[in-house]
């Protein structure tokens, strides 16, 4: 019996991701997903598959991985860890994976895994949900982002029922930045869906927004912001930002930071050590809680601008998924969440295929109308 190589690869990759998600029940299995790069390496050798980089998002993260690797000599071992995290979700697509699985089935699969992983919380503590207090029995960082991606995908492909289900699950999983990203993407989609903006304009707007965010993050790290926080919200800046102002302050007030390092980067992995020192005053690894600031600090303004420019070169509705990823990158370190990024690439490929089929259908209808006229 002839085996479909593509289906075999995506089956193995999905199996490794699903098993990794069951770490609540089987301690240590979360590391099994890191077998994906060697599996893809073996797949490429056995099938004699050449390397390919087609999707805009894949290009952006390949650039990120390569630049990070080049900056490891200026950084530390945590930079190498990041490169491997990137390879975990990049490698299937670099060896030519073209997902053919129906997106509805993929959504059902990950939704089922989400409920299975949260069953332990339900059985031990019952159901709890409070949007104001940010408490939910179903709270889950990884799956909150995954479900958010599905919500945007269903929105732009006009699958209304699936969008509503995904939105409800996103609310239950209660990751506020994910909900904010869905709202932002939804607004942008409804404002721009009937217009065809040139890629250059989209990239320019994205670069401007991210640079403005860096200035905003700098302001959050100042005493002036702390005073405003106390005045308007009755809490200090650390409470309002959940400690992020301290982390952000560490990169903006780094005594070793000069002009060259701001432009080209300090070194891969350096943000982890700097963040740890700012909180614990000791060596260790602490996330900066912002991929945008992490890329800016470690790879410089050049690295960030190239990454954002490549991320937004989509000519399909997948650009809205890029917006979602960009928004959650503002306050979280999601670039090292292999499952989230894998789903991002799968859904981008699905939207590209969906757009192509729609364009083909429209062209066929126009052709039939022209023939009917004669």
TrEMBL record:
Record's subcellular location: Membrane
The UniProt record lists the keyword Transport: no
GO CC annotation terms, alphabetical: membrane
Membrane-crossing segments per the record: 31-51, 58-77, 83-99, 106-129, 141-157, 164-192, 198-221, 295-314, 334-351
Major localization class: membrane
Keywords: Membrane, Transmembrane, Transmembrane helix
Membrane topology field: Multi-pass membrane protein
Domain called O-antigen ligase-related: residue spans: 162-308
Entry protein name: O-antigen ligase-related domain-containing protein
Species assigned in the record: Oceanisphaera psychrotolerans
